[in-house]
Specification:
- It is a single chain.
- Helices cover 17% and strands 25% of the residues.
- The longest helix is centred in the N-terminal third of the chain and has 24 residues.
- The radius of gyration is 23 Å and the shape is globular.
- The termini are far apart.
- The chain has 342 residues and is α+β, with helices and mostly antiparallel strands.
- It has one domain: Trypsin-like serine proteases (Thrombin, subunit H).
């Protein structure tokens, strides 16, 4: 009798043990930073444990980094610079990182989702404005949502103490999502950045004079350094060459999708912006002027499908009019076509 009872209890214990083990191993993973979702080349979701963003994302649509990417709690992920080197201290003072505030203080690596560039506006060189890709921040245009963002400048590493962290008071987007056109946005900061490290914008006359095929330009960001990610802890910069728009629109490249307000740069294998770099700067280092913003692409590092950038010269008047309008007492007077959301 005792032997039968003992056998019965062993069976019960075994059943309970294996049932418990089954439920434990099939529990959902602990909530953590969201993963990137790729909608287009640079459409990503969040940077939790990346796989990707120029804000660049793997194809289907294009957006280098975060172009069509949506972060899931937060913004989209940008593309990362491939084939570059770590930036030196003070080398790229205009480089900005856009972070979501929903992460613990100091966790810049997981909070990061797009690049940006601190720009110099007007005679006073007011460094309260950051340019980025519209696809990075289009979901943050209301006052309450804009305050969920912050901008970090002066940092080379996402894992080291922050130099300057400034809140965002307003997001102004100029974007046609269906056509991936006008992929540019302005972030007004809560206060001016110390040191006035903003970079000036290239104008169309200067662009026409200087920017010819083969011109060396510098792209920078914390995006993927390979097609498999993850994003970089350190700020990376690389030299890419300006390409002719006709060549960029070749059927073997971007098949006519590069408009007059976009530009292509690349042409070297494995040197490119990539997922996580979206919104970051393309700079003419000789002129010390901003010429482009990382926008979209179809792959990372393919010389036949170079990265596509928002052409800054095309938007100099929009930037000047918009920043001037918000400098006035009544932002309602913003120019036609500018989103005025509080």
């Amino acid at each position: 009798m005792f032997g039968r009872l003992q056998h019965f209890y062993v069976l019960i214990f075994s059943a309970l043990f294996f049932t418990t083990l089954f439920f434990i191993t099939n529990l959902p993973a602990r909530a953590g930073p969201p993963h990137i979702k790729v909608f287009g080349r640079d459409s990503v979701s969040v940077v939790g444990s990346p796989p990707s963003s120029m804000g660049h994302v793997p194809p289907p649509t294009h957006a280098h980094g975060d172009s069509l990417v949506k972060l899931t709690p937060g913004p989209r992920l940008p593309v990362r610079v491939m084939g570059g080197r770590p930036a030196w201290k003070g080398e790229l003072p205009w480089q900005a990182a856009i972070l979501h505030t929903g992460y613990s203080e100091g966790d810049n690596y997981n909070a990061f989702f797009c690049g940006g560039v601190l720009i110099s506006i007007g005679r006073e060189h007011d460094s309260r404005w950051v340019l980025t890709a519209a696809h990075c921040v289009e979901d943050y245009q209301t006052d309450s949502l804009a305050h969920q963002l912050k901008v970090v400048v002066g940092d080379l590493s996402l894992t080291q103490p922050t130099q300057q962290s400034v809140g965002v008071s307003r997001v102004i987007v100029h974007y046609d999502r269906d056509k991936l056109a006008n992929d540019i946005a302005l972030l007004e900061l809560d206060e001016a950045v110390r040191g006035n490290a903003g970079i000036e914008l290239i104008t169309e006359p200067r662009e026409e004079l200087l920017l010819h095929r083969g011109r060396a330009l510098t792209v920078s960001g914390w995006g993927w350094r390979s097609t498999h990610g993850p994003i970089s802890e350190d700020l990376i910069c690389a030299v890419v060459r300006l390409l002719d728009r006709v060549d960029c629109n070749d059927p073997s490249a971007h098949h006519g999708e590069v408009t007059e307000c976009m530009m292509c740069a690349g042409n070297s294998p494995n040197v490119d912006a990539c997922w996580g770099d979206s919104g970051g700067p393309l700079v003419d280092r000789q002129e010390k002027r901003l010429v482009g913003i990382v926008s979209w692409g179809d792959t990372c590092g393919d010389p036949h499908k170079p990265g596509v950038y928002t052409r800054v010269a095309c938007y100099v008047n929009w930037i000047a009019d918009t920043t001037a309008a918000y400098a006035r007492p009544h932002p309602e007077s913003a120019p036609h076509g500018v989103s005025v959301l509080h």
